[in-house]
Structure formats: C-alpha cells, structure tokens
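User: tokens in, sequence out, please.
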C-alpha cells in the first residue's frame, strides 16, 4: 500500500468526521438528549482509539486506560480534538516510506494484552474502525429522523476532485 493511498484515506476520514460531527452537534439536545449523548460517546470512542494508535505508532505512551473516557466531552471540544488528530494522521501517513509502512511495532492494548502490527496494519485499523463507528453514529441520527451523511470514499473523491466524476 502506498503512502499516497494512506494520505488520501486519512483526508477522507477527516472529511467524513467533519460532516458527521456537524450533524451530531446540530441534534436538538432537548428533543434528542439521550441519542445526542450516545452519538457523542461513539464519536469520542473513535477519537480515543485514534489517539491510542497515534501513540502506538510513535512508540509513545498514549495515556488512556480504556477505549473511551469516563466523561463525555462537549461536541465542540471533541471536534477540535478530532481535527487536530485527523491533521496529524494526514501528515503522518503522507510522510511514511514503504519500509516504514512495513515496519512492525510492538504495543500494549488498554486491557494489558500485547499486540504487534505493521504501521500499515495500524493505519488500516484506524481507518476501518472509524468507518464502522461512524456508521453506528449515523444510525443514531437516522433514529432521530435525520438522514445521516453518505460516508463514502467515492463521494469524497468526487467532491474533492470533481474531474474524477464523469457523466455516463
């Protein structure tokens, strides 16, 4: 897998995160307090796991004892933190060589078990994990009568590079 593909996937992730966070933040807290809270908890879980793997990739302590925090952050503060992390991943993914992508990294999961993955596998974990849970948050939106965003890589590519979209 090339660094160009990983950089594109992380730009897509940042794009998808922006859209979904905006929709969750717009949920009426009075009418949908429980659902809004649940969606923010899902988004926070994505962010915490992203931060855990960022620490693992750098071989630095990540500071998390679990894959979510006990407290639920405010939507705006969470989005600011997500933006910072997404920006880090975009830059990090674009900076790696093929040899660095293949490098094996040993780490410890939050439950204490030890893990071992290549950098490419860790990056794919972050991408696929986020997509899975964005779908869960989208389902919460749907239950509130809000059409969730079309979180599709093809949509991102066509929105960010319109020349890729050709009429039939």
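Assistant: Sequence out:
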């Amino acid at each position: 897998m090339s660094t160009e593909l990983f950089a594109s996937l992380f730009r897509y992730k940042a794009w998808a995160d922006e859209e979904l966070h905006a929709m969750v933040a717009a949920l009426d807290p009075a009418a949908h307090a429980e659902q809004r809270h649940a969606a923010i908890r899902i988004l926070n879980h994505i962010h915490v796991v992203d931060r855990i793997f960022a620490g693992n990739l750098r071989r630095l302590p990540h500071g998390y004892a679990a894959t979510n925090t006990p407290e639920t952050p405010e939507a705006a503060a969470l989005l600011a933190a997500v933006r910072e992390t997404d920006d880090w991943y975009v830059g990090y993914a674009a900076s790696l060589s093929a040899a660095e992508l293949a490098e094996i990294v040993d780490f410890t999961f939050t439950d204490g078990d030890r893990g071992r993955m290549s950098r490419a596998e860790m990056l794919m974990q972050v991408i696929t994990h986020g997509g899975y849970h964005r779908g869960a948050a989208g389902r919460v939106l749907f239950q509130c009568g809000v059409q969730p965003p079309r979180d599709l890589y093809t949509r991102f590519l066509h929105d960010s590079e319109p020349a890729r979209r050709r009429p039939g």
